[in-house]
Structure formats: structure tokens, C-alpha cells
Amino acid sequence: MTGIQAASDTVHIVGAGLAGSEAAWQLANAGVHVVLHEMRPTRMTEAHRTDSLAELDAIAPIVHKDSIDMSVAWFQSRYDKLGPVGTGADYINCPLTQQQYDAFVDALITGEKTNFKEWETNTPYFDGCLPIEVMAERGRETLRHGPMKPVGLTNAHDPLAKPYAIVQLRQDNKLGTLYNMVGFQTKLKYGPQQSIFRTIPGLAHAEFIRLGGLHRNTFLNSPKLLDAQLRLRAQPRLRFAGQMTGCEGYVESASIGLIAGLYAAADASGQSLAAPPATTALGSLLGHITGGHIETIEQGSRSFQPMNINFGLFPPLVHPPTKKPDGSRLRGNEKTIAKKQAISARALSDLDRWIADNLRIAAAA
């Protein structure tokens, strides 16, 4: 959660999380004098675990790869699509039968949970980041239609077997030695977490470098309080960035820090910076934060909720693809994939043009 304030020729950034650190880097890279303020380690909070900058408030358990039984699990991306590593086999998949899945759901529901701290008690859950046990409580099939859906995957050890549910683990560090359990944010106590998660096939001997948790996300009513450049309408010398603005996710927090830093650098250099195109991930997220919500008469801007980057934020294509290169018609999932590829290609082209036209701040400073 980051606040940025310009004072004479120096820009002060309060909070050295992902957004604050990124904003400071952009300002320094543009030749602007910047001071980054962080209270830790002098003063700690209940939400943090380290005294370092840009700490990830991790919520999914992380497992040592060497402790995963790969005679049961296998590498594959859903529908073999390229993922973060770019191989088409970016996830470790652990299959469950219906009996194993039912037992797993029962254990999640009955497992002992940690109590909310007083400052968290009345905070509603963000639907995009529900604890796995809360998803289980909402219906026995919820998980296998959510983070544990088995579609688009084939068991490499038994191609004819149809897993009833799948637990996916995603690479968490560059070395590829650590994997996090996708969608497994939780309020389960540490003991129950280990015993329950080790019932998952392939994780019987899992070594956890870190167990799961859940964090509170406090955010501004940004469409009402902030302008299009993330400045506080009541005091334009102040900017905000990071999760405080209503973005959800680590990459998203850093990206809003990036654009806030660029805006502050442009101001400090006496230049103007055009908004990133709404057709790009950065531009569409910024647009959501600063006014892309649905305002109702009853709720006003209170309908604003945190958001991850997703294709639903992008403006629609003027001419969505309908045919393959050979001229035959796109059908079903082919059409969806082609549409997303076209949106991505448009975004990259528009972003390159925006960078060429606008990001001359460092050169001019």
C-alpha cells in the first residue's frame, strides 16, 4: 500500500512493498531524486513476516519439488497451453479419484481453522481469493469446478484414467525447486494443513517451505477519490498505488506502482504522460481502478471491488477472428483462443507505440 508525494525536487514514497519499490525504481531511473520510506524492521505489523522490502504476503502453501512423488504426479498445462515458464507443461498435476476428493472436501470443512484477528473480523471475503475451505463449504462440487477442475489434463501415467479432480502446483522460484499449490489460500491451522494436504496423491511426503494463509486487503474507493493519474482529488500532490488502489495480485500491484512512478517522474520533469492504452493490460487495469466500475443509484461508487488483470477488462475487438489461416471456420474453444490471441497481439502493438511516443522521460531528464 503506497502513497507518493512530491515535495520540491524530491519525491517521497511511503511504503516499500511491490508498488512502492517499483515506483521508486521508475523515478530513480528517470533521474528524479526519490526517498523511499519503510517502517520495517523498526516497526512490524501483524500482516508481515519479514523485515525485507517488497515482501510477498504469500497465501498459498509452497512445497519442495523434490518431495513431490512424480510417479503419481505429472507435468502439464491445461490444454497444453503455454504458461509462465512457456513450455506447455508448466504445472505439476496431482489427480484425485471421487472417493479421494470427497474425503478431501470433508477434511477441509471439519479441519481446525485459525480465528480472525480483531482488525480482520468484519472484513468480507474477496470472491476472487476465497479460502479453499470456504469454497468447499459452498458446495461439494465447487472446488472441482474451480481450482481443482480436471478438464484439459491427461494423466501421463494412465492416459485412459479420468481424474475426478486435480490439484495443480505452479513453479514459484527461478531455480524450479519450489512449487505453490494453486488456489489453496486458507485459514486452516498449520497442523491440519499438513495432514490434510498430504492426503493429496503425490503429496504424501510433501515438505512445506511455507504453509498457507490469508491476508486482508484494505482498499480505497478509488473511482471516487482518485483521478485518472492516481492522484488524490482532494490533494493532487498525493498519489496512491498498489493494492490500496483496488488491484488484486502481485503483478498487478507492481504494475500500478510502475505507472504511478512514471506519472510522478513526468510531473517532476515538467512533462506530460499519456495514459497507457485501454487495450493493454496496464491501461485496462488503470481504467478499472479510476472509473471502470458500474455505478448504481443505490450504491454509488461502493460497487467498486478489487480486480485482477483479466480479458474481461479489455475493450472488445472491432473485428474478432472467425476463420483459421486455411479459411475454415473457428469453432468452440478454437474461437476463444483465437480471440484472446488477437487481443494480446493488439495489446502488444499498442503498448509498443505508447512506449515509443511517451517514455522519453529518462532521456530528457
CATH homologous superfamily heading of the largest domain: FAD/NAD(P)-binding domain
Please give the CATH class of the largest domain.
Alpha Beta
SSE string: EEHEEEEHHEEHEHEEHHHH
Strand content is 5-15%
Portion of residues in helices? 25-40%
CATH topology of the largest domain: FAD/NAD(P)-binding domain
| Main sheet properties | 6 strands, antiparallel
Give the overall pLDDT as a whole number: 85
Number of strands: 11
Shape: globular
Radius of gyration: 23 Å
Number of helices: 9
**How do the strands of the widest beta sheet line up side by side?**
5-6-7-8-4-9
Looking at the overall shape, the CATH architecture of the largest domain is 3-Layer(bba) Sandwich
Uncertain ranges: 296-301, 361-365
Number of discrete domains: 2
Could you tell me how far the N terminus lies from the C terminus, measured between alpha carbons in angstroms?
28 Å
Helix/strand class: alpha+beta
